[in-house]
Write a structure and sequence with these properties.
alpha+beta, 5 strands, globular, binds iron/sulfur cluster
């Protein structure tokens, strides 16, 4: 049985701005979202085991999440000076990554076998082994929510967590599937 009050506190202690329960049955793995990866805006397409085409099909992902019912959504919200404030956008992204890794190491002992989905590609290793060698940590690989076909704003809305915090803010979202 998940104690969400404790988990949300743990998430906030790890640096996240917000966190909340995730009902895994709300996750929809959409081909249209996956298709956006091919435009390679994030420069990770074809460069990491966690991203297309290496990460497998959406059916593979549906299969992987079958064993989970509940999870935790986590968010870092950054304040921007204006909508061209790249410096603070990058800072918020770096904060999300740091918060995510910190919480992951804490959750790992509580929920061995958890599945982590982040706001971008897997950054566990300084350099991904793709495509020359197998993934170094296949059980610890961080999936990308978008690469899994998840429409992040919909995941938030479906789970009663805000996604848009108003003008001059940016929110990065990830999740952990726990039980
Ligand atoms: S764990 Fe390392 S090798 Fe595996 S996908 Fe992540 S960065 Fe690549």
């Amino acid at each position: 049985m998940i104690n969400y009050d404790e988990l949300i506190k743990l998430a906030k202690d790890s640096g996240f701005t917000n966190a909340g329960p995730l009902d895994v049955s709300t996750l929809e793995f959409m081909p249209d979202v996956r298709a956006m990866c091919a435009s390679d805006k994030c420069h990770a397409y074809g460069k990491n085991w966690a991203c297309p085409p290496a990460c497998g099909t959406l059916d593979d992902m549906r299969e992987k999440v079958k064993r989970f019912n509940k999870g935790l959504l986590v968010q870092t919200v950054g304040q921007l000076e204006d909508n061209m404030d790249w410096e603070n956008m990058q800072k918020a992204a770096a904060d999300q990554e740091e918060n995510f890794q910190k919480l992951w190491s804490r959750l790992d002992t509580l929920y061995p076998g958890l599945l982590a989905m982040g706001a971008g590609t897997c950054t566990k290793c300084k350099e991904c082994t793709y495509p020359d060698k197998p993934c170094r940590f296949p059980d610890k690989l961080m999936h990308s929510m978008e690469a899994c076909g998840l429409f992040v704003s919909k995941v938030c809305t479906d789970n009663h967590l805000s996604y848009n915090y108003g003008p001059n803010t940016i929110a990065y979202t990830g999740c952990f599937l726990l039980e």
